[in-house]
Every structure is written in C-alpha cells, then in structure tokens.
C-alpha cells in the first residue's frame, strides 16, 4: 500500500505538468485570459515546483520525509480545489503556484522514502516502477485532459482537470500517514539555507516574469530591469552555494559535481532538451485547437503519435545504449531535430498531406526524445564518483524542472509574437535539439574517451550504478587535479 501511494502521488504530480495544456483554449475563452496568462498557467506550476524543490528535500531530511510528504499531499489537495474553483485567471495562476509548491514537497520525498523502504532487488523494482509511472503520466497528459474536458461532468468543463485530483488525494491521505514508515537523513546537518532558497526562487521567477509579461506589455523598461536583477540573483545564488560549501555548511545544491569531466556538458544538454520538450505540448495543443480547429479530444488523440514513438523507442533504448554507449544520446538528439523539422514542414503543407506529415513528425520526435532522454540523464548522474551521486541527482532534477517553465517563457516569445506562429517555433525547437546534440556529443567524448562511448548498463545507467551502490570509472575531476581510479584507491595528486 505504501508503494502504491508513493507511485500514485508521482503520477498525479507529473500529470499536472502536462494535463492543463489541453485545457488552455477552453479556460482562455471562459476566463478571458490573454496569452501571458496562458503561459503562466503552464509555467507557474513548473516554476514553483523547481524553486521549492531545492529546499523540499532538505525539509524532509530535517523534519521527517513522511511528515513532509503527508502535508504536501494535503496542500496539493487544497490547491487543486482552489484551481477548480478559480473565478479569474489571476486566482487560477496563484493556485497553480501553490499547487507547484505542494508538488515539490512530495516529489523528492518519494525517492528518499523508496530508498529507505526497500533494498536490493526490491529497490531496483520500485525505482523501475517509478520510472514507468513518470513516463506514463508524461505521455498521457494530453489525452487524459481531452477526455476529462469532453466528458464535461456537471458542466464543469476545464475545471474537471483540476477537480479530479481532489478525490484521488483524499483517498491517499490515510494510507500515506498509516502505511508509510518515517525516515530521516542519518546526517542531516544543521538548518536550512533560506537565503539560498529566496535567491533561487526570485531569480527563476524574475526571468519568467520579465519574458512573459514584458512581451505582453510591449517590452517596457521595467522588464529589462527585472530580467537583469533576476540573472544577478541567480549568479549570487551560485556564489552563495559555493561559499556555504567552503565554510563547511550544507548547501542546497552541491556544486562540486561540476568538477567532474562531462557533467557540465551533459547537464546543459538535459536542460536544453527539457526546455524544448516542455514547450512542445503547449504550442502543439494551442495550434491544433485554435488554428486547426480540432476538438480538445481530437487534439489529445493526435498526441498519441508522439506517445507511440516514445514508447516504442523506449523498449530498445537501453539495449542500444548498452551496445554503443552514451553517444546514442547525441544520435537521439539528431533524430529529435529531424522530428521537429518535419513538424515545422507540416505547417507549410495543405490538405491531407499536412496531417500525414504531422503524424510522421510526431513519431520521429517521440523516438528522439526517448533515445536522448534515457541515455543522457543516466549518464550525467553516473559521470560523477559514487560518493557524489546524490548531489548530482539533486542538481539534475532541479535543472529538469526549471527548464520546462523557462522554455515556455523563451519559446513563447516566438509563438505568441504572431498568433499561431507554429512553423517558426518548431524551427527554433529544431535548433535547440541540435544544440542538445552538440552538448551530448561533448559529454560522450569527455566521459567515454575518443570513441564517444561510455560503459552504460542494460538498465540505462552507467557501469558502477547511479544509485550509489557501486563506483564508476567515468568520474574524473576536471583538470585532472584529482583522478579516481576505482573504489578502493585514494585520489592521487599529481603535478600539472
């Protein structure tokens, strides 16, 4: 029962990242929302999730993971109810931000609780189920949203997308408290870095605010001032985290993982990938409903082609990565680039041919996403020494969650510049996928040698395991100041 509650919460949290995109046209008409407000409906949740994520895991270490998870579930229930009852788009966006914070309270506790509850084969099985649930929630968001809105139970329309969370969460409250064992970090350190949390949250929020509201307001002077201040806050945050680590205090993000060769390039590739993938669902949903005139259910059905490509390639991705190494990620990004280019071409073709080209583009794009995402994320985590796997996972998760709202804000500049700018947006996405391919190739060279291949296991992780149970020979300090040669040897200093 405990595992079912944890997996169910994971499904709900991920689903709410994507399910609302199907409802955007309907709620825009009902609440008279402008394009900036629509962007906030999607970006607000992801932005709050990313900003709160970096402190939520720390709260679990200090207060107890079951306690933080339970109250996160309570808050998510109340926030979902507020979203469903929102009388204006402003109230809706405020509730979405609260919903994102609540989701962040649950998210990191799930992984930590499963690690504490299971060992050995049972743990590997639990994490495999968790990965399956995440993938299923991501690819089914559009279709689930379309079904709920089309059902129109009690004439609730788009509000049902949020209201459906309430009974599901209420059913999970009692088993969440009674069945999930409590756990805390063995060495939780002291205190919470509130200064770092405020700097990170204000920096991320400021970037999205400047890009979204600045475009809607015609780029007034204040938008550039806010953008500059937000970027400065993020720079100060990075320096602040380094300062805390040097003083022996626990940082929110352990930035020492960037000393490992390949980690920075791989992380950059993941960030670019998630920024593009996140905005695709928003742009395509609006294009199909507002430009092509499809119903919300038919638009959700079109996404089945993207899901099919993703799922089919997921079955062979691990085997390809095991045989050819992490260079498969670079190839996958090139496949994704081709998929985006074909999707852009569908916007320049008329008649039945446009739908055929669109379907082909979605299948190719889905296959590319599965290849690059599966190979690159596992390799980035495994590119560090096993002692820093937890820190690397935290940095990776933060970048993944922050990239989606930032992608909506950045690529939204292209799409909303001319209403229905589908072709230019997809061409920009193709360019971003090409950039991700370059980062993935650089990462492969750095962690795997000249042939670009890294030793990656059948389970999608690099040899030595990404769960901290083994060592990895790919974890080398940048600049070769320290070189790790295995789990039984000490780091050896040598002269430059």
Q: Would you give the CATH topology of the largest domain?
A: Growth Hormone, Chain: A
Computed structural class: mainly alpha
SSE pattern, N- to C-terminal: HHHHHHHHHHHHHHHHEE
Helix content: over 70%
Output the strand order for the largest sheet.
1-2
The proportion of residues in beta strands is under 5%
Weakly predicted, low-confidence segments? 449-474, 479-496
Please tell me the CATH architecture of the largest domain by its name.
Up-down Bundle
Distance between the termini: 56 Å
Main sheet properties: 2 strands, antiparallel
Quickly name the level 1 CATH class of the largest domain.
Answer: Mainly Alpha
- Name the CATH superfamily assignment of the largest domain: MFS general substrate transporter like domains
Number of helices: 16
Q: What Rg, in angstroms, do the CA atoms define?
A: 22 Å
Question: How many β-strand runs?
Answer: 2
Mass-distribution shape? globular
User: How many domains is the backbone divided into?
Assistant: 3
What is the average per-residue confidence, as pLDDT, rounded to a whole number? 81
Domain Major facilitator superfamily (MFS) profile: 2-444
GO molecular function: transmembrane transporter activity
Main location: membrane
Biased composition (Basic residues): 475-496
Q: How would you describe this structure to a colleague?
A:
One of its GO terms (molecular function) is transmembrane transporter activity. It is a multi-pass membrane protein. The chain is an all-alpha fold and 496 residues long. The protein folds into three domains: 1-189, Growth Hormone, Chain: A; 194-249; 257-496, MFS general substrate transporter like domains (Growth Hormone, Chain: A). Helix content is 74%, strand content 1%. The chain is built from 16 helices and two strands. The chain has helices spanning 2-18, 24-31, 35-63, 65-84, 89-117, 120-151, 160-163, 165-178, 194-216, 221-246, 263-291, 296-324, 327-346, 352-382, 389-415, 422-448; strands at 482-483, 492-493. It has a two-stranded antiparallel sheet. The N and C termini lie far apart (56 Å). Mean pLDDT is 81; it is low at 449-474 and 479-496.
